[in-house]
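The records we work with from here on pair a chain with its fold. These numbers are not coordinates but entries in a learned vocabulary of local backbone shapes. To see the layout at work, look at the sequence and tokens printed below.
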Amino acid sequence: MKTKNIFTALLLTLFLLNFFHLTIFAQNKIGVLVLAHGGNENWNKTINKTIEPLKKNYAVEVAFGMADPNTMQAGIDKLESKGVDKIVVVPLFISSFSPIIRQNEFLLGLRKELADEPMIMDHSSMNHSNIHNSENTSEGTNETHAEHNTNHTMHHQNQETELQPLNFKAKIFFTKALDDHPLVTKIIVDRIKELSKSPKNETVILVAHGPNDENDNKNWVKTMENIAGHLREQFNGEAGFRNIFCFTVRDDAPKEIYETAKENLRSLVRQASKDGKVIVVPLLLAKGGVEKGIVKRLEGLNYEWNGKTLLPDSNITKFIEQSVEGILE
């Protein structure tokens, strides 16, 4: 009888502890909304696989698109339907210096007004190898590129009156983009080590997509230079690299800027290769076509390249986890 009473008391205690835990969890349930550019099916699968481990501790949704209000609203609605009262929004973008980030801030009620021309574009199923196919034309012309930019501008203007802040009841927190986070540097170090044999005789060139706006581009490159500084510290014990350069290709910029960026990158690789080996590393989130454009740009030049982007890598999952934890501390 005594053993039965102890067993009953133990079950009751476990029940009460579980009930208490569930009650507290329900009152302070945290949701995570991951924002990602979006691409072809494989690109999107890579993102979904990256966020999967987070679902052990949080309600998680992903919104594909360039600050797309439709996918973002759908994600928020799903999270709130699960009882979430706090939503941490994590932009899985390379840089915080972008109209995409500023539009996200507006949509989330963190800006009173739009800072840039509105964008309403869903890239959730877009293949970048098609977007940037100006690099794939037989004549090497930029006609398709120019048409791509014109279409974007028209789409913005036609949708300008439709962009409004999103509807939500939960408290919203918005974290920083990937920028120069230590985990980004860690991934880049791993990518370089796969190609490097003698740093003192090598030049590393980090290549990112980059924005259209000049001020955004300066800040974007400055952030990349912070990563370069960390790389110099990491490899200092091996006599360091000959040089580390940071570059943005600016695929979506007007034709003149695009062509200038293209020629500058080719010149940089050409000159650096005269003094030793050149290692080109893409600072891109995932493979979707932009990396193929970089290779096309550098056709005929001598350099080392494996095309590996930040994903797949478990450090990006850790980045999201740390971003959420940092907000909630």
About this structure: The two ends are 48 Å apart (CA to CA). The chain has eleven helices and seven strands.
